[in-house]
TrEMBL record, chain A:
Protein name: Protein ImuA
Biased composition (Polar residues): 229-244
Gene3D superfamilies: P-loop containing nucleotide triphosphate hydrolases
Region Disordered, annotated ranges: 229-250
InterPro entries: P-loop_NTPase (IPR027417)
Species for this entry: Mariniphaga anaerophila
TrEMBL record, chain B:
Name the UniProt record assigns to this protein: Protein ImuB
Organism whose genome encodes this protein: Mariniphaga anaerophila
Alphabetical list of InterPro entries matching this protein: DNA/RNA_pol_sf, Rev_trsase/Diguanyl_cyclase, SulA_CellDiv_inhibitor, UmuC
Family per record: Belongs to the DNA polymerase type-Y family.
Key words, A-Z: DNA damage
Origin organism lineage: Bacteria, Pseudomonadati, Bacteroidota, Bacteroidia, Marinilabiliales
Length: 250, 508
């Protein structure tokens, strides 16, 4: 048995080494603490949300974009803390600032950059990521090439900031130099005890790709200022389970 | 009037040079178009429904044409004359520029509209070796520049004015203005037309005739103006001279012993220039809004880059960063031998602004500088920051602010649902199965029929009548069968005509 434990130890150390070589987890100092995502953490390399890298979000419809923006806002709020600033870059902004306060963000701490040309999004994002004063930059755009995403990854490797690329209705589906690809879809809400009206907003979070981790699909409900996992048996027959569901929920 | 004696002492050391640009407007034209120099031409302007000659050039004056004539008459007499519209504003600007040019001769220069300059040259002439070389230098240089001028130096502005226009001497010796004026016509006293006509009628041909008449009689007949002008010319009365203010130039130069060809060398030069310029800004409480960095190449070309800032700035590192972005645009070719940095637009740096760049946190300075960087490339209109505003109408519930420091005065409201994505303009949607006070059963958005399975509402938002009038909106939060959540509203009530439905946003 001691032999096996030893092997496990060696494998763990090797894994950590690989992550370091990939420039991914050296910022993994847990200074941000837990994101409150519960079981999702198990999917990440090292068991914590990867910071200091670029994450990709893909939304195919406007309602998906709304759901993804909500999930993003929740992640960003953790980064911003009490008095941090955030850069939110978009060519066609639809974010309604007051609604950000539902997701624990103080809207006046978000600086919106509304650019005319999609290419400028990447330039502004790179500038933001290079700046040591910002810990998080969100950019909405449609297309991004591998080379451009590589540039962003290099920018964060120097500064330690985290970037979120939110691709709304992308035309292509190429691989990017991002640590992850997320897809967030809205799900029908369940009203409590058969009450009429719209219940707590429910979303399906799909981690389609994660570097050095295990992809998965989870369901969350937004209540009381946090995403609460929803038990699996309540899950609707949503056509999304090409990737096996994680069996355990908190 | 003050006693003569005391005023004499007051004016004792004052010397004035008057430069009369006899052909200012036509000289300006001739400089633009050198072919005109030998041709007769005139400048005209409409007046009381006729076109009147405003200025003629010397070649035309020889033909007997003077300003004030009607253009049609001139054309009849002299058909081949070239005509141009007169531009009094351009003349004024030119005169101002000439005044600024004259700062090399004296620190006090005033313009005398429409065509003269007054220079207070007290204590300046000896630097040119006396008044005669002084006046000759100026007139010669102006002549070489294409302006034919007449000039005179005297103790008073009035005397210099009179002698330059009507006299023949260049210099009126100190205290001798009265002798110089005696033989000149009364028009040399800068009098208005009416007075001149009356003097002419009464047979006053020379100033000497006027001087012998007791002042009380003159005042009774011609008013006080004649007396004051006479006094100003003779030096018994004060005359104010309002000098043109030289525009300060924020320009730094850096000559290089060896031509610079590398980006690194350019950066060093830029940094040095910025340091000197910013030091001056700190002394004078100013900051740069627009800066131009020029490189003079050894092949004679000039290459330049320019930047603009969000607010006046005098931070070396920040300005350097803005320039740095554009340094690759500078083509050094064989090498740059001289660098200049000019702040083309300079503004005061206000106290309140200092707090924006405050020491409060380094982070904010870094962010402000990042924003400047972004504004430099994308334009300042790209950057937005919002504060809550106490309005229920969704479009008015936020206000834009420019400064990073400004804090919300009221809380962000979270008691009513608001969508995370808001359409910039509500999109009209077609609805089916709508009943009064209920959300629709279906609606069509983007050509897709969306069935509503759950809904919240209505939340009625009335128009703010003091801002805008119109029907109220009834907002519903609806959820479609596949889980998408929308913000719909009905504009108007059911009582009169069919209200219109709109989609305004998307919830998470």
């Amino acid at each position: 048995m001691g032999e096996i434990a030893k092997k496990k130890e060696v494998i763990n150390q090797l894994k950590k080494k690989i992550l370091l070589m990939e420039g991914l987890s050296k910022k993994q100092d847990n200074r941000l603490g837990d994101f409150g995502l519960g079981s999702v953490n198990e999917a990440f390399p090292g068991g914590a949300f990867p910071v200091g890298t670029i994450h990709e979000f893909v939304s195919t419809t406007e309602s998906c974009a709304a759901a993804a923006s909500g999930f993003l806002s929740f992640l960003v709020s953790t980064f911003m803390g009490r008095d941090g600033f955030c850069l939110w870059i978009s060519p066609k902004r639809q974010i309604f600032p007051p609604a950000l306060s539902f997701f624990n963000i103080k809207p006046h701490r978000v600086i919106f950059i509304d650019v005319k040309h999609p290419k400028e999004v990447l330039w502004a994002m790179e500038q933001g990521l290079k700046n040591k004063a910002l810990s998080v930059v969100v950019a909405e755009l449609r297309e991004v090439s591998f080379a451009e995403s590589r540039r962003l990854q290099l920018a964060v490797e120097n500064s330690g900031a985290t970037g979120f690329l939110h691709r709304i209705r992308p035309l292509t589906k190429g691989a990017l130099a991002c640590i992850s690809r997320w897809k967030i879809r809205p799900l029908p809400s369940r009203a409590n005890n058969g009450l009429p009206g719209v219940g707590f907003p429910r979303v399906e979070v799909e981690l389609e790709k994660i570097h050095g981790g295990r992809p998965g699909v989870w369901q969350f409900e937004w209540q009381n200022g946090k995403f609460t996992p929803v038990a699996s048996q309540k899950q609707s027959n949503h056509a999304s389970s090409s990737i096996p569901q994680k069996p355990k929920y908190a | 009037m003050l006693p003569l004696q005391s005023l004499k002492s007051l004016n004792m050391h004052k010397r004035y040079l008057y430069i009369w640009f006899q052909w200012l407007a036509t000289d300006r034209m001739a400089k633009i178009n050198p072919e005109l120099r030998s041709k007769p031409f005139l400048l005209h302007a409409p007046e009381h429904g006729r076109v009147v000659v405003r200025a003629v050039n010397p070649a035309l004056q020889k033909e007997g044409i003077t300003s004030g004539m009607v253009l049609a008459d001139v054309r009849a007499i002299f058909p081949e004359v070239a005509v141009f519209p007169s531009e009094p504003e351009a003349d004024k600007k030119l005169l101002n520029n000439l005044a600024e040019w004259c700062f090399r001769y004296t620190p006090v220069v005033a313009t005398d509209l429409p065509d003269g300059l007054v220079l207070n040259i007290s204590g300046c002439a000896h630097l040119w070796g006396g008044e005669l070389p002084y006046i000759k230098t100026i007139t010669k240089r102006l002549f070489r520049g294409g302006y034919s001028v007449r000039a005179a130096i005297a103790d008073t502005i009035g005397a210099a004015w009179a002698v330059s226009r009507y006299g023949s001497q260049l210099i009126v010796k100190p205290g001798q203005q009265q002798e110089a004026l005696l033989s000149l016509p009364p028009a040399a006293l800068r009098l208005e037309k009416n007075t001149l006509q009356r003097l002419n009628k009464l047979g006053f041909r020379q100033i000497s005739q006027l001087i012998s008449i007791p002042h009380t009689n003159l005042r009774r007949r011609f008013g006080t103006n004649l007396l004051s002008k006479l006094g100003q010319a003779l030096g018994t009365e004060r005359e104010q001279l309002i000098s043109v203010q030289p525009t300060p130039v924020y320009l730094e130069r850096l000559p290089c012993p060896e031509p610079i060809r590398t980006a690194k060398g350019i950066k060093i030069a830029l940094e040095r220039l910025l340091e000197t310029l910013c030091e001056r800004f700190f002394r004078e409480g100013k900051g740069m809004r627009t800066g131009i960095f020029k490189g003079y190449r050894i092949d004679g070309e000039i290459v330049q880059i320019s930047i603009g800032t969000n607010r006046a700035s005098r931070h070396v590192t920040h300005l350097f960063k803005l320039f740095e972005l554009k340094i690759p645009e500078l083509e050094p070719a064989l090498g740059i031998e001289l660098f200049t940095l000019e702040a083309a637009l300079v503004e005061d740096v206000s106290e309140s602004q200092e707090t924006l760049w405050s020491i409060r946190s380094n982070n904010q300075t870094a962010i402000a500088e990042l924003l400047d960087n972004i504004a430099g490339k994308l334009g300042a209109q790209a950057i937005h920051r919002y504060l809550p505003q106490e309005h229920y109408w969704p479009e008015r519930s936020v206000k834009e602010v420019i400064s990073l420091e400004e804090q919300p005065e009221t809380q962000w409201r979270t008691n009513k649902p608001r969508p995370l994505l808001l359409l910039p303009k509500p999109e009209p949607v077609e609805v089916m199965g709508a009943l009064p006070d209920y959300p629709p059963l279906h609606f069509i958005y983007n050509g897709e029929i969306i069935s509503v399975s759950r809904a919240d509402g209505p939340e009625r938002i009335e128009q703010e009548w003091w801002l805008q009038s119109g029907p109220p909106r009834d907002y519903y939060r609806v959820e479609s069968e596949d889980g998408a959540r929308y913000w719909l509203f009905r504009l108007g009530l059911y009582d009169k005509d069919r209200p219109q439905w709109f989609l305004h946003g998307f919830f998470v």
